[in-house]
Amino acid sequence: MPSSTTTATNSTTTTHLAKQHQFTAAEEEEEEEIIKLLSQECKELLVSQRERECDVVLATIPKSGTTWLKALAFAIINRQRFPASSSNPHEKNHPLLTSNPHDLVPFIEYEIYANNKIPDLSNLPEPRIFATHIPYHALEESMKKSDTTTKIVYLCRNPFDTLISSWEFLKKLRPESLPQFSFEEALKMYCNGSIGYGPFWEHMLGYWNESLKRPQHVLFLKYEDMKEDIVSNLKELAGFLGFPFTVEEEREGVIEDIAKLCSFEKLKELEINKSGKAAMKFLNNFENNYLFRKAQVGDWVNYFNPSMVQQLSKLMEDKFQGSGLSF
Ligand code: A3P
């Protein structure tokens, strides 16, 4: 509400009340103070309401922790409806226990706009949560405007581990009739930028630069940081999404409960993720368990020889130089 309107309304209201009750100057002052406080509270309520009506877009390069980020964002945003605490009797009804995170947060490009259909999004609960692998520059323009109501969270993972994770994943999907896909070949394609959604450095830098320019709209997280300190990262994520944890929630351990529910160890062992096949209907030969491999930071050391390390390190140095983004 603009302040001039607020002031005009306040003084009209006060004059009106004063006429009826013959307020003293001190009472009038007190009345003004109360109205000021109330209008401030209204403003705050409106802001938090607006934040909650934002669309949330979770952006990643494939194999950077998309499944994890989907689970965490869903659990944070829906924690009133679905508490994550194991001591809460409702925890057993949590959708993450019976659905793969990909079934709870749809991809814009594979699901929402698949088959050239105009989607009906009217039934989605607010805030709507979507995911995408689309690079920043190719996102729909309305998401990039300065007054957009879209909040973008980008989860970035060290390129070394992302490549290993992708290669292992693609090998599982590859039909047996095709020749084997060697690691040398995968590294060559990765370094040439010949992968889905474009070169990894452009993808990462696109979101990184935007997070520096518009930090209220784009949050840049790193997989490795989340592994190291999930609690701080979840606090930052929840605050950014407009669903900050209260002091009471922190005291009750809600952050740790969400971290535990969405952890690799927990999700991997759920029946839906061990034997389900439905999460990525758009991929042939897909099984949910392919999404949960090792989830280790630094697994790449088991695959790269020294000259391969040098090749990717040099490329990263060249591409990320001066950007402030490092791994
Ligand atoms: P690895 O292949 O290194 O094990 P995406 O979800 O984008 O497809 O990324 C998959 C990677 O994230 C895999 O890495 C997978 O094991 C890891 N992952 C899946 N669930 C996770 C979780 N809850 N926490 C951390 N990492 C997870």
How would you summarize the topology of this molecule?
Layout: H1 3-21, H2 25-52, E1 55-60, H3 66-77, H4 95-98, H5 101-104, H6 108-112, E2 129-132, E3 150-156, H7 159-173, H8 183-192, H9 200-213, E4 218-222, H10 223-228, H11 230-241, H12 247-252, H13 254-261, H14 264-269, H15 271-275, H16 306-320
Helix pairs in contact: 1-2, 3-11
Bound molecules: adenosine-3'-5'-diphosphate.
Give an overview in words.
Its EC number is 2.8.2.-. Residues 1-23 are annotated as: Disordered. It comes from Xanthoceras sorbifolium. With 327 residues, this protein is an alpha/beta fold. It contains 16 helices and 4 strands. It has helices spanning 3-21, 25-52, 66-77, 95-98, 101-104, 108-112, 159-173, 183-192, 200-213, 223-228, 230-241, 247-252, 254-261, 264-269, 271-275, 306-320; strands at residues 55-60, 129-132, 150-156, 218-222. The chain has a 4-stranded parallel beta sheet with strand order 2-1-3-4, sandwiched between helices. The radius of gyration is 24 Å and the shape is globular. The protein starts with a helix and ends in a 7-residue tail after the last helix. Mean pLDDT is 88; it is low at 1-19 and 45-50. Bound molecules: adenosine-3'-5'-diphosphate. Residues 60, 62-68, 161, 165, 168, 262-264, 267, 291-295, 299 line the site of adenosine-3'-5'-diphosphate (A3P).
Helix content: 40-55%
Report on the biggest sheet: 4 strands, parallel
Secondary-structure-derived class: alpha/beta
Total helical elements: 16
SS elements, strand count: 4
* Strands ordered across the widest β-sheet: 2-1-3-4
Small ligands present: adenosine-3'-5'-diphosphate
- Round the Cα radius of gyration to an integer and report it: 24 Å
Give the overall average pLDDT: 88
Poorly predicted sequence stretches spanning 5 or more consecutive residues: 1-19, 45-50
| General shape | globular
